Structure formats: C-alpha cells, structure tokens
Amino acid sequence: MTQDSPTLLLCIRHGETEWNAVRRIQGQTDIDLNARGLAQAAALAQALAGQTLDAVYSSDLRRARNTAEPLARARGLSLCLEPALRERAFGSFEGRSFTELEVVHAQDCERWRRRDPDWGAPGGGESLFALRERVHGALLSIARRHRGQTVAVVTHGGALDCLYRIATGQDMLAPRTWELRNAAINRLLVSDDHVGLVGWNDCGHLDEVLDESGA
Predict the structure, then answer these.
(1) Is 194 a catalytic residue?
(2) Which domain holds residue 93?
(3) Active site residue 14
(4) pTM
(5) Looking at 16, 18, 69, 87, which residue is catalytic?
(6) For the chain, what is the domain count?
C-alpha cells in the first residue's frame, strides 16, 4: 500500500431525533435518537451489510454514536469516537427554534441566514470557518490512518455540509442546493489530502422506514 492510496469514506448523518422532528437547534446538546432514528440506524446497518468496512468512526454525541453502533457491532469492530466530528456549537441558541429566535435575536439570525462565516451564536457559538477547519482536519486525519481502506464516519448535518463544499469546491457562502438527510450515505474519496465526491444522498434503504412512519 503506497502513501497516496485513496481512502473511501462513507459519511453518514445521524438518525432522526425529536429535536430534528420539531426543528429545534441541537448543536452540541446531547440528544438521543427517536423511534424513527433507531429504525434508520438499523436500516443503515442492513444496507451496508455487504460493504467491506475497515473501521467505524463517530462523533461522540449520542445521536451519532447510537447510529454508528449497529454498523460497528455487525462487523465486530470497535467504535472509534471522535469529538472533532461533532455538530457546530450554537451556544445559547441550542434547544430553541429559529422562528422563536428571530423575535429576540433578529440581527444574529440575519447574520446566520446570510451565512456570515465569522458569526457565532451568543454564549459560545462556533463560526462556520471554525467548523469547517475542525471537520476538515478530522476527516484528513482519519483518512491518513486508513490509507487504502474503507471507513464509515457518522457525523452531523453541519459537518456534512462543510464536507460537501470541500469536495465540490463550493464556497462556504453559497446557498445549499444539496440534501443532508438523516442516515443517508455519502461517499467521499480522500487521496493525498484531496477530498473528492463519489456519491451523495444514497437513501434507498430509508424508503421502508419512511413508509412505516407514515411520513
């Protein structure tokens, strides 16, 4: 295996939580999966049953960890927890809805809506640039540890948004035109620190989960 052997990364957003369902800002608040999220995690593990995996990494937040655990367990792999894969921190905005915040934090919400790269929510929120650097660094570090291998990485919507932009050369300020579905599979190839897009939003395994939930 050469130094520049590419690493295939299966990057996955965690399953659904109750805060996802009611559109509350989660950030780094440690929320559990809801019933649909648990079903999505099981469907994900089944969908990847025939996929060779050399390692499984996850954010250390419960919603990501509990999505990754069935995948790791099915292969007898230890789950590697990586705090740098966490969602963007939203400080005092966590637990609240955007609609609610617009009333009392109009200027902050406008900067957030405009994707101001230097803006961070009051109370310790993280900027887009800081999030991008953190997640990009974590991805490259994982890829270097697993050159020539295939690795599952379970993370969060904000992190995946950054990774899509990195892989496609999209500016951090560009409007989002791609989906970030819970438990969808997104494939990136990392070679010599270059991140390329292989496939995005593979979600056929989620159809049955959606049908059973009635939504």
Answers:
(1) no
(2) 7-213
(3) yes
(4) 0.94
(5) 87
(6) 1
